[in-house]
Amino acid sequence: GVDRGEGPEAEAYLSELAELTRTAGGVPVKKVLVFRPHLDPRYLVGLGKLEELKSLAYHENASTLIFGLELTPTQAREIEKATGLKVLDRTQLILDIFALHAKTPEAQTQVELAQLRYLLPRLVGKGKELSRLGGGIGTRGPGETKLEVDRRRLQERIAHLSHKLQEYTRRREEARRQRKRRGVPLIAVVGYTNAGKTTLLQALARGGEPGEDKFFATLRPLTRRGFLPGVGEVLFTDTVGFIRQMPKELLTAFRATLEEVREADLLIHVLDASEEGAMGRYRVVEELLAELGVEALRVLALSKVDRAAPYDLFYLREKLGGVPVSALKGTGVSELREALAEALLKVGVRPQPWAQAPQYT
Ligand SMILES: Nc1nc2c(ncn2[C@@H]2O[C@H](COP(=O)(O)OP(=O)(O)OP(=O)(O)O)[C@@H](O)[C@H]2O)c(=O)[nH]1
Ligand SMILES: [Mg+2]
């Protein structure tokens, strides 16, 4: 990790990088934070530091260097040459996790497209280095066997995948139109990765799926039916988690699933209140939503309160408001339902007449 003067933020960022490495199946043996206000254009952290890292890697028996920043193709090559280690950046790590978790044809298409778009500019003028990629983190996924093909074939593959993705997008649009015709309000659950979105959705809707302690566990968001007191039938839709500095290749590839967020009548922003750096994660999500042009009203759910420190929770409520919930213990879920119903009525959703009866609450 590199600290360019961010202080504690840089520490949190480095821990997250270690967590991402674990999620990708790697074993982080050493975390090094380099203080460097100005980056070295060629070696990022400077040649002296690289020598140090090289000997550290030797003593720890490590084979890979993972950087918390995005490396230019030249930097990656120079660092590899200088250290003799395999070099990965954060974007490659994230793409790799997505590849591991992509189980459906649509998600696989999206991930392969993102991988190839990231790879393409890094292939300019070098044919033989493709085979250097070997195996392990950063080389997995639907694109894996195709890494050996040349640039032209890569471009053809990208065109083919884009076409396929358009077909999936069209199908999603059709499903959305049909849902609109039925007039059932849509609530999207958004938030940072691992915030507890899927678990909360399961507590709110009927027949969800269990969450997982992994980054980017959800890649193909499911939509589930539910009921809200005083409103009636609603739909809850899960989403792909956000992360700071989301690789733009992924945002482009996952745009179709994010369209669902833009169409939602209401958002639940799930913020993990039990992990450090909640304010930072809150901002990252809100900024990404703004970038995507999402304007829908939000209800904030402060999640995992069963393991949150009371003072942190107090601080977050003071700053942001929000409904404290624990999807695991079930606390706060009925308060959240009430807040959601109230917010839906505020944005002009008309209650279904029979939903007024108390037995449906
Ligand atoms: N203690 C506690 N843990 C929770 C709670 N809600 C979720 N978790 C745990 O947090 C982890 C992540 O939960 P998920 O629901 O998968 O989170 P997510 O936001 O859907 O994550 P991605 O889909 O990977 O972005 C899982 O291990 C859950 O069991 C809660 O209320 N309390
Ligand atoms: Mg999830």
Automatic annotation (TrEMBL):
InterPro entries: G_HFLX_dom, GTP-bd, GTP-bd_M, GTPase_HflX, GTPase_HflX_N, GTPase_HflX_N_sf, P-loop_NTPase. It is found in: Cytoplasm. Its main location: cytoplasm. GTP binds at residues 191-198, 238-241, 326-328. It comes from the Bacteria. Its cofactor is Mg(2+). One of its GO terms (cellular component) is cytoplasm. Mg(2+) binds at T198, T218. SUPFAM superfamilies: P-loop containing nucleoside triphosphate hydrolases. Residues 185-348 form the Hflx-type G domain. GO terms for molecular function: GTP binding; metal ion binding; ribosome binding. Keywords: Coiled coil, Cytoplasm, GTP-binding, Magnesium, Metal-binding, Nucleotide-binding. Residues 151-178 form a coiled coil. PANTHER family: GTP-BINDING PROTEIN 6-RELATED, GTP-BINDING PROTEIN HFLX. NCBIfam families: GTP_HflX (TIGR03156). This is GTPase HflX. The lineage of its organism: Bacteria, Thermotogati, Deinococcota, Deinococci, Thermales. The gene is hflX.
